[in-house]
Amino acid sequence: xxxxxxxxxxxxGLSKNKVAEIYKRRYNQQIKLIRAEVVNRxxxxxxxSYEALAVVEKIIYKYLxxxxxx
Length: 70
Fold this sequence. Notes:
- By secondary structure, the chain is an all-alpha fold.
- Helix content is about 70%, strand content about 0%.
- It is built from three helices and no strands.
């Protein structure tokens, strides 16, 4: 999930918590797919709600800073 997708969900009216939940679910699903291969069974790390919220908040904050420059 990239920045554009996160911002589009947020601009549609979803709360940052809901966007973080969606981000966490998609990220962890990608890690599961990577870990399904025997070679990569220890690769990656699952993230929790707090880490996902931190990523989403950083992206939203950066967007607002760029938008509101004088």
